[in-house]
Structure to design on (346 residues):
């Protein structure tokens, strides 16, 4: 007869998850010290929420004292082609794979809630579901539960899925058999470290987020440091270089949900077109996309930096209207771009 855990794993697959493992809430005792050191060194940059929620992030039982088991689930969003191909198209914008389709937060959370309701109906207990936005150490929990291991690029890597997957978790008061933790399989490989355009990794398994392009284009408010702007290339939202370089992606599983497929308007979008978006058109265009959350001004800043890195003076007409933009960061980006393209003296 199938156990509850076996039926739960089958139900997770039926809901669309690629992989499920079970862990204990008390197995990441090393995390608080690591997080505190990360914050003390300032590697978190402007992500103040990391410092504010350290106790919860380092201990699941501080977040919910009644939790006894944690289901950690992976959902693949693997691309069909190498996402780095667009980096050679200097007049086009490069958008991180995870943000080219519908917002994964909504999709994954709804799956988690359906699976959680199934678990309650089958076995009772209480549950809480989390996807990325809560102070949950998903990657260390994923490794402790055997879902994968944290690679040298700090992301979770799976022998079954590579590293193109979202992580969700279900906390439950039920006692479920835990899986064995996963061990590190990176070996001597440093492909992800060498692929980073900004040398954001201060050491294997250790990142300074302040140099990470994903952080700079998404989390960072205000102007990007001048010495880093040229390194952004045409990346306007996130960066996939370290993920795409991982050789374990030979085991990547294609995304099963069509909603993760690249939207037509996010498949190498023309920078000139994006530079023309006002706030209303920005909101309309990116409705249902994670891009919407950074707002028009930060997005336009990124687009202008990309135009400055394009080496194409014919894009100047898309930049000039923003020299007097009400947002000082956008105006600064426009002036920098004009200078880069030789149309304005410093």
């Amino acid at each position: 007869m199938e156990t509850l855990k076996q039926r739960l794993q089958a139900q997770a697959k039926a809901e669309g998850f690629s992989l499920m493992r079970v862990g204990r809430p008390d197995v990441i005792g090393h995390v608080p010290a690591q997080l505190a050191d990360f914050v003390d060194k300032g590697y978190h940059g402007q992500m103040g929420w990391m410092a504010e929620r350290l106790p919860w992030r380092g201990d699941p039982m501080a977040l919910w004292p009644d939790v006894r088991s944690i289901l950690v689930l992976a959902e693949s969003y693997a691309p069909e082609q190498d996402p780095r191909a667009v980096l050679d198209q200097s007049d086009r914008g490069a958008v991180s794979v995870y943000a080219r389709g519908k917002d994964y937060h909504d999709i994954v959370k709804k799956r988690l809630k359906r699976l959680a309701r199934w678990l309650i109906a089958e076995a009772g207990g209480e549950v809480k579901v989390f996807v990325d936005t809560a102070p949950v150490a998903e990657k260390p929990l994923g490794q402790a539960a055997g879902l994968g291991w944290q690679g040298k690029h700090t992301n979770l890597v799976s022998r079954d899925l590579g590293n193109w997957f979202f992580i969700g978790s279900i906390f439950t008061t039920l006692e479920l058999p835990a899986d064995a933790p996963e061990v590190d399989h990176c070996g001597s490989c440093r492909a992800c470290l060498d692929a980073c355009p900004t040398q954001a990794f201060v050491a294997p398994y250790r990142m300074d987020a302040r140099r990470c392009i994903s952080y700079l284009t998404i989390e960072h408010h205000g102007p990007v440091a001048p010495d880093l702007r040229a390194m952004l290339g045409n990346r306007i939202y996130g960066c996939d270089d370290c993920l795409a370089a991982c050789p374990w992606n030979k085991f990547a599983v294609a995304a099963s949900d069509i909603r993760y497929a690249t939207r037509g308007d996010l498949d190498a979008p023309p920078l000139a077109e994006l530079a023309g978006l006002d706030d209303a058109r920005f909101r309309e265009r990116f409705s249902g996309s994670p891009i919407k959350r950074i707002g028009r001004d930060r997005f336009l800043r990124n687009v202008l930096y990309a135009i400055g890195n394009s080496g194409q003076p014919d894009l100047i007409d898309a930049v000039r209207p923003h020299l007097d933009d009400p947002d000082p960061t956008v105006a600064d980006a426009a002036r920098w771009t004009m200078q880069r393209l030789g149309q304005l003296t410093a």
